[in-house]
């Protein structure tokens, strides 16, 4: 039960942060990605503002266990595989096309109307495709 | 607007706090695409599933409350171009799951623990996003 309260608190803060930061507005994201005219640096401030508490939190995990029990995540993997590279590029193209990434797409579902809902449904379909594409990539790596 | 970066910083701080709460409380990494994708995959522990569901519900609910309840207005105009919405949604969903992370997972949670995979992913999706916006703007005359 307490784990659910933690999840609710975190989700609520995440939603509030995405809403207040302006990141659910595709124009601000595309304004950041568009280097050719009046550049919108807001995303840098959002990233910077988010990295500080998060970096402190990672520091606090050393020698401890999570408050609600269990284990902290294992140290990050270090290999750069094709899935990471291809996946990130595909994601970036989609992000540039519409200006929404997964967090803001969830956070703005209630007020972004049919367009937001269609994007969200297509995103879920893309997620469902991922295991199949992943298997194909593994196969072609094994054959190479 | 002048105050945009302040709201960016405030919102970003809340996003980082959200990630810190989920990490220190439940020992989980706050990645929007991972949490959403985890709900789509079958199997796994039921408790982890309910935690994800509660998280996503609160990411939707709090912006809804701010928008409709507290009447905080937010500019958020998504394109109504059906092809763009579906194509971009598919790419974002597929790409983030292949790469195992998006702006929150690789960007906020990864870079803050000095993960090289997180850093590479972030460089790639921002680069691909910027290239996409440039192509749309100069070849297709979008956003003009």
Could you characterize what this model shows?
Chain B: Its main location: membrane. The complex is a heterodimer of chains A (144) and B (144). Chain A is mainly alpha-helical. Chain A has one domain (2-143). In chain A, 70% of the residues lie in helices and 0% in strands. Chain A has helices at 2-21, 26-33, 42-60, 82-98, 102-107, 113-143. In chain A, helix 2 crosses helix 4 (82-98). The N and C termini of chain A lie far apart (49 Å). In chain A, 51% of the residues are buried. The mean pLDDT of chain A is 94. Chain B has helices spanning 4-26, 32-40, 46-69, 82-99, 103-111, 116-139. Chain B has a domain at 80-144. Chain B is mostly helical and 144 residues long. In chain B, helix 5 (103-111) crosses helix 6 (116-139). The longest helix of chain B has 24 residues, at 46-69. The chains are: A mainly alpha (144), B mainly alpha (144). At the A-B interface, helix 1, helix 2, helix 3, helix 4 and helix 5 of A face helix 1, helix 2, helix 3, helix 4 and helix 5 of B.
Described by strand count, sense and barrel closure, the largest sheet of chain A is: none
In terms of structural class, how would the helical and strand content of chain A be classed?
mainly alpha
Described by strand count, sense and barrel closure, the largest sheet of chain B is: none
Mean pLDDT of chain A: 94
Q: Which class do the helix and strand fractions of chain B yield? A: mainly alpha
Quickly count the helices of chain A: 6
In which range does the helix fraction of chain A lie?
Answer: over 70%
Low-confidence stretches of chain A: none
Protein name (chain A): Sulphur transport domain-containing protein
Keywords (chain A): Membrane, Transmembrane, Transmembrane helix
Pfam family, one (chain A): DUF6691
InterPro entries (chain A): DUF6691
């Amino acid at each position: 039960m307490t784990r659910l309260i933690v999840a609710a608190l975190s989700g609520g803060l995440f939603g509030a942060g995405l809403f207040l930061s302006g990141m659910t507005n595709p124009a601000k994201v595309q304004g950041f990605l568009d280097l050719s005219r009046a550049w919108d640096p807001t995303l840098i401030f959002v990233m910077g503002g988010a990295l500080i508490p998060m970096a402190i939190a990672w520091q606090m995990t050393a020698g401890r266990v999570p408050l609600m029990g269990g284990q902290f995540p294992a140290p990050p993997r270090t290999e750069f595989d094709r899935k990471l590279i291809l996946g990130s590029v595909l994601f970036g193209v989609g992000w540039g096309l519409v200006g929404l990434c997964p967090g803001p797409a969830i956070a703005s579902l209630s007020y972004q109307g049919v367009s937001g809902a269609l994007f969200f449904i297509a995103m879920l379909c893309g997620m469902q495709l991922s295991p199949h594409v992943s298997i194909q990539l593994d196969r072609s790596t094994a054959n190479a | 607007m002048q105050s945009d970066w302040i709201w960016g910083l405030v919102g970003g701080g809340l996003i980082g706090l959200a990630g810190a709460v989920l990490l220190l409380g439940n020992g989980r990494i706050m990645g929007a695409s991972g949490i959403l994708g985890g709900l789509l995959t079958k199997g796994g522990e039921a408790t982890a599933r309910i935690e994800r569901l509660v998280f996503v519900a609160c990411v939707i609910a709090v912006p809804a409350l701010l928008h409709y309840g507290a009447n905080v207005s937010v500019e958020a105009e998504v394109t109504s171009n059906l092809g763009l919405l579906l194509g971009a949604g598919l790419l974002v969903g597929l790409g983030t799951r292949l790469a195992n992370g998006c702006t929150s997972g690789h960007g906020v949670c990864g870079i803050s623990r000095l993960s090289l995979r997180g850093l590479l992913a972030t460089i790639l999706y921002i680069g691909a996003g910027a290239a996409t916006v440039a192509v749309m703007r100069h070849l297709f005359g979008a956003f003009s």
